[in-house]
C-alpha cells in the first residue's frame, strides 16, 4: 500500500506542485528526474468539506528540487483547480530515471502529511 498526503499545493495554477514528506523522500531516494505514480483523490476546503472528486491515476514529475512533484498542468486546467484548496494524493510508486519501479510503503497505508481532516458525510 502507498502513502496518503493531504496538503495545499504550492506555486501558481496551472503549475502546481506538492512536497513529498521528508522521511519518505530520504527512505526511497526521491530526487529530481524521478516520477511518482499517484492517485489524485479529492479536493477539500479548509474545514475538510469535499469540494470535488478527481479520482484519477496520474504520473507526476519530480523536478526543479528534490521532493517537489508536479501535477500535469492539463489536469489542473481541466479540473479548474486554483491551488488554494487541500488535495488528497496517494503516492503509490516511485519510477526512477532508469525505469526501475519501487512501491512506496508496500503492504501498508501510511498517512504522514494530513493537513486537513476530511469530514465524513
Properties at a glance:
121 residues; mainly beta; globular
Provide an overview of this structure.
This protein is mainly beta and 121 residues long. The chain has one domain. The chain is 11% helix and 44% strand. It has two helices and eight strands. Strands 1, 2, 3, 4, 5, 6, 7 and 8 form an eight-stranded mixed sheet that branches. A hairpin with a 5-residue loop joins strand 3 and strand 4. The protein is globular. The model has no long low-confidence stretch (mean pLDDT 93).
At a glance:
This protein has 121 residues and is mostly beta strands. Helix content is 11%, strand content 44%.
Secondary structure elements and their pairing?
Blueprint: E1 3-8, E2 17-19, H1 22-28, E3 35-44, E4 50-62, E5 68-70, H2 73-78, E6 86-95, E7 101-103, E8 110-114
Parallel strand pairs: 1-8
Antiparallel strand pairs: 1-6, 2-5, 3-4, 3-6, 4-5, 6-7
Strand content: 35-45%
Number of strands: 8
Helix share of residues?
10-25%
* Strand and helix order: EEHEEEHEEE
Low-confidence spans: pLDDT under 50, at least 5 residues?
Answer: none
* Overall 3D form: globular
Radius of gyration: 14 Å
Number of helices: 2
Distance between the termini: 25 Å
The main β sheet shows up as: 8 strands, mixed
Our count of domains comes out at 1
Name the average pLDDT.
93
